[in-house]
């Protein structure tokens, strides 16, 4: 009975798993593309650094904190008009990727900023002393020294996106969360609920293990 139920669930579970991977991949790429330079900007415009700018730092910091202070479920619903404008729909994994990206960008930006703050000030001061340009300092010093921390940030962001993507199922975003709600919660099917939980746990463990291995490989310090 249980085995038959699991076999019948495989097609839906496979589709939901691929939708989750799709949502997380799109959102993570956008988070890295925008969040990485944003995190660098938050760091280098801080007091005492080579591109100090209190106005830029304050404005960016406020925007990042504003988005991060909004619970994802509320953000998901609040961004539905923007989602419809960008994707033409408010349901499905592509539509859910809009809210996921908006939530992930400031989160990853703060992770990058935190990683950069772990770099010893003396390293930056030495680069300035030898006449390195701001771009050279960012490229050859900051990003080089902070690589393990940034990889850890990507890992944590990816895991957070997996959790967020499950919540996206509330508004028909697809993925494993949608499967758990439609088949597990609404139909009181414990087999579906337990299976989706196990899949999510396994996925998170794989991401965490892979992230830690990559971080060790890129750590040349």
TrEMBL record:
Pfam families: BPD_transp_1. PROSITE patterns: ABC_TM1 (PS50928). Residues 17-209 form the ABC transmembrane type-1 domain. PANTHER family: ABC TRANSPORTER PERMEASE, D-METHIONINE TRANSPORT SYSTEM PERMEASE PROTEIN METI-RELATED. The keyword Cell membrane applies. It is found in: Cell membrane. It comes from Anoxybacteroides rupiense. InterPro entries: AA_ABC_Transporter_Permease, MetI-like, MetI-like_sf. This is ABC transporter permease. Keywords: Cell membrane, Membrane, Transmembrane, Transmembrane helix, Transport.
């Amino acid at each position: 009975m249980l085995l038959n139920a699991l076999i019948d669930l495989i097609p839906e579970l496979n589709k939901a798993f691929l939708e989750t991977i799709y949502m997380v991949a799109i959102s993570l790429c956008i988070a890295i593309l925008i969040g990485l330079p944003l995190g660098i900007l938050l760091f280098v415009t801080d007091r005492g650094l080579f591109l100090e700018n209190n106005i830029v730092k304050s404005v960016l910091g406020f925007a990042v904190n504003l988005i991060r202070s909004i619970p994802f479920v509320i953000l998901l619903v609040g961004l539905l008009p923007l989602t419809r404008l960008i994707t033409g729909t408010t349901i499905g994994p592509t539509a859910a990727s809009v809210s996921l990206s908006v939530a992930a960008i400031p989160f990853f930006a703060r992770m990058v900023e935190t990683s950069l703050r772990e770099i010893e000030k003396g390293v930056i001061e030495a680069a300035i002393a030898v006449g390195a340009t701001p771009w050279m300092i960012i490229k050859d010093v900051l990003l080089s020294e902070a690589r393990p921390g940034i990889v850890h940030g990507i890992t944590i962001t990816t895991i957070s996106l997996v959790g967020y993507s499950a919540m996206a199922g509330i508004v028909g975003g697809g993925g494993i969360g949608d499967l758990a709600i439609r088949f597990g919660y609404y139909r009181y099917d414990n087999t579906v609920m337990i299976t989706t939980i196990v899949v999510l746990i396994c996925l998170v463990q794989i991401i965490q293990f892979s992230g830690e291995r990559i971080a060790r490989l890129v750590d040349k310090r």
